Amino acid sequence: MTTLRKGGTFNLAPAPESIKVEIKPRYGHFIGGAFVEPRKAKRSADAAAAPSHFTTFNPATERPLAEIAHASAADVDAAVAAARAAQPLWAALPAKERGKHLFRIARRIQERARELAILETMDCGKPIKESRDVDLPLVAAHFFYHAGWADKLAFAFAGRTPRPVGVCAQVIPWNFPLMMAAWKIAPALACGNTVVLKPAETTPLTALRLAEIFEEVGLPKGVVNIVTGDGSTGAALVGHAGVDKVAFTGSTEVGKRIAKTLADEVAAGTRAAPKRLTLELGGKSPHIIFEDASIDQAVEGIIGGIFFNQGEVCCAGSRLFVQESILDRVIAKLEHRMASLRVGDPLDKNTDVGAINSGAQLERIEHYISVGQSEGARLHQPVSSWKKPGKGHWCAPCFFTGVQPSHTIAREEIFGPVLSVMSFRTPEEAITRANNTPYGLSAGIWTDKGSKVFEIARKLKAGVVWCNTFNKFDPASPFGGFKESGFGREGGMHGLRGYVEVSS
Amino acid sequence: MRPRSRKAAPPTARTFTEEDTMPNRLDIAKTYKLFVNGAFPRSESGRTTLVSTPKGEPIAHVAKASRKDLREAVEAARGALAKWSEGTTAYNRAQILYRVAEMMEGKRGEFVEALASVGPDAAAGGARAKGVKKGATKGLRPEDEVSLAIDRAVHFAGWADKHAQVLGCCNPVAGPFYTFTSPEPVGVVAVVSPRTPALLAMVSLMAPALAAANTCVVLASEQNPLLGALLGEVLATSDVPPGVVNVLTCDHAEVLPIIAGHRDIDGVHGAGLPAAHAAILHGGAAENVKRVTIRTPAPDWASDAACEHPGWIEPLVEFKTIWHPASA
C-alpha cells in the first residue's frame, strides 16, 4: 500500500513495519484456561440468527484477518462458571503471589510488545507509532503498577478492610483494544477478582493474544476468560446472574442501557442490591486556549488532543474554545500544522493518522461532517495533496469554524478526527460554555498564568483536567468522568475502589 | 432544654380527656411545614398527612410535598451549590456543620418527644413496610437516638476539611508532570431516609453529603416525618445558607420516580429502603448516569464503626485529576 502524503514540506519514503505477525485463521473463546470452540446454539432459530463465527477485518485494507467465534448464551454461561469456580482459589492465593502473576504478565507483554503493537494496528487501524509508543508501554505499565498493589490493598482504604467483589464482567471498546483490556483486567486481578472479558466485535485479536500470554505465563485457569461476539454477547454477559460486577467502557447510550438492566434486576426481585457498576462513557471535551498561552505548544496540544487515534478517543478535545484576540492566529497555525499530518498506512512508522476502525464508524463521522456543513459551520480540511486510496476506511483530519453552541457538531460525540472551533471573550464565558454539556470526561487548559490554571481547572466539570498538556495517561493516575461520562475511576489508587468491597 | 413539668404526655401526642376539654390555657400547636430554600412553605398542593401514635391517636398534620415541591427544592439546591462548594472554605463548612449539631442539642426535647410519640415500630397499619429487611439497629431509645444523631453530625462536621486529604492523593506518573487527584462534590444529592430510625438515619445520610460540599434535598422518614420538619427548623438557625439543605415530608412512592428521572439531581444517598423504592432510584442511573448509593441492608445505625468512616463520603464525591507539566 502506498503512503499517503498531505501537502507537507517533507516527502518521506514509505517505512512500513516489516515484522510479520502470525494470525490463526480461526479463534475460539478462551475459557477455563484454554481456547475452546463455541458451543452449538440449542435451537436452530438461534443458530440462524447468530452464526458461530464472524470475521474481523483490517480497516486499512478491508482484508479479512481471522474468523472469530461468536459467543452464545451457552458460551457466556461456561465462561462465567469458569470465572466463578476460579474466584475463591484466586482470592485465597497469598496476595504477594497474585501480584507475582501480574508482574510476570507485565514482563511477557514487554517482551512481545512489538508483535502486539503490530497486531493492534492491523486489527484497529491506529498508527503503529501510537500502538508502539503509547498503547503497548501503557499496557505493560498497567499490569506492572497493579501487580504491586495486590499485597498492599489494606493501605489504600483507610480504616476499612477490602475484599474482592467476585466475578467481573468487563466489556470494552475498539479504540484502544489491548489498553482497555489491561485497564480492566489488571486491577480486577490485583484485588482478587476473576474476569470474563468481552472485547469489541471489530478488534478481538490482541485480547486473544493476551490470552495466549496468560496461558504461557501460567496464570491459573479460569482467572481470566475471554468471550468474543457483538452487542448481544455483551448483553448476555452483563445480565448474567453469576456476575457480581460490571465494568463497561463505551458509548453513553449503551452505558445507560446497562444501568437500566441492572436496575431492572433489582425491580424484578432477582437481587436485593444491584451488581456493582463502573462506567466509562462518551465525552465532548472542551479545550480552552487563553491569549496568554504559549500558542505553538497549545497548537501541538490541540492537534494531539483531537487527532490522536483518529479522534476515536472518548476524552478527545473535540470542542476548542479560543480567546477571541488570538482566534485568527490559532486557526492559521492549525491549518499549517494539519497540512503536515500524514494520513495513511497505519503500519508505516511515519503515519500520524491511520484508518477509521470500521465502515460503520466512518459513515457516522461523515454524517456529522455533512451535518456540520448543512447547519452552517465552515469546514477546513487542509489536505491538498491527499488522495484517498480505493480500499480502507479513511477520514482526513478536519475542523469547523463558525460553530454555534447549538450545532450538532458542538454537542454530540463524533468519535472521529473532527474538531469544532469556537471563540470566547472572558474566562467566565469559557467556563460556562465548556461546562455546557451533559458530558464531563476531560478538559484542557492552555495559559501561562499559574493562578488561572488552577481556578479554571477547579471550575471545569471534568474527571481529568490537562493543563498545558493533553491526552496524558498513566496507570498511577485515575481516569474517568463526571456527569454522563460515567462513574468510577480506572487507574491509580482510586481505580482499585471499583474492584473491592470494603467493610469497616 | 426547656423543662416540661406541666404535662404527662408530650404536646405533640396530646389527646383530650374529659378533664381538659376546657383547659385554662390552650397550647399552641405547631404547624409542620416543608423547608425549602431557607423558608418554611406549605406544600403548593395544599395537602397534608396525618401523623398518629401507634394506637392511632392523631399527633399532627405535616405537609405532604408534591412533585412540584420537589422540583422547587432541587432548584434551590442547585442554586445554592456554587456558594456552598466554592464560596465557602472547608473550614467554614466544618464550623457550620458543627453549628447544626449545637442547634440539634438545643432542640433535643422536641426530637425526643417526636420520636417517642410515634414510636420505633409504627409502620403503616402496624405492619412492617413491604420489602424492607429488618435492620441491624435494635431497640433504640429516643434519648439515645438523639444523642447518636447529634454526635454523628459532629463527626461529619470534622470531615469537611479532611476528606480531601484522606481520599485524594498525588499520582507518581512516569513523566515530568505534577498530577494529583482530589474529591469534589457530586452536586445536588437526594437523601432518602428509611422509615426508621427517623432522625439518626436521616442525619447519618445527610451529614456526609454536606461535609463533602454537596447540597441536598432530604426526604424525611415516611413513618415519622415530624423529625424532618424539626430538622428543617434546626437547619434554618444553623448558618447553613438557604437552599443548601431542603427537607421534604412526602409520600416516597409518589416522589421517588421524579427524583430518579430528574436530570438536575446528580446523586442519591439512601439506606434500608423497600426493594421497589431502591429499584426506582437505581433506574436513575439509566436516566442521567446518577450516582446512586443505597446501603442495603441498612447498617447498624447505632454503631460508630459502621457509620462513621470515609466510605460514607466517598460515593458523594467526584474525583478530579489535574495534570500539569513540571518541566520548564
Description:
The complex is a heterodimer of chains A (about 500) and B (about 325). Chain A is of the alpha/beta class. Chain A contains 16 helices and 20 strands. Chain A has helices spanning about 45-50, 75-90, 95-110, 115-125, 130-150, 175-190, 205-215, 230-240, 250-265, 295-305, 325-340, 360-375, 410, 425-435, 450-460, 490-495, and strands spanning about 25, 30, 35, 55, 65-70, 160-165, 165-170, 195-200, 225, 245-250, 275-280, 285-290, 320-325, 380, 400, 420-425, 440-445, 465, 485, 500-504. In chain A, helix 9 links the parallel strand 10 (about 245-250) and strand 11 (about 275-280). In chain A, helix 4 crosses helix 5 (about 130-150) and helix 5 packs parallel to helix 6 (about 175-190). The radius of gyration of chain A is 23 Å and the shape is globular. In chain B, the strands form three sheets. In chain B, strands 7-6-5-8-9 form a five-stranded parallel sheet, sandwiched between helices. Chain B has a three-stranded antiparallel sheet with strand order 3-4-10. Chain B has a two-stranded antiparallel ribbon with strand order 1-2. The chains are: A alpha/beta (about 500), B alpha/beta (about 325). At the A-B interface, helix 9, helix 15, strand 18, strand 19 and helix 16 of A face strand 4, helix 9 and strand 10 of B. Strand 18 of chain A pairs parallel with strand 10 of chain B.
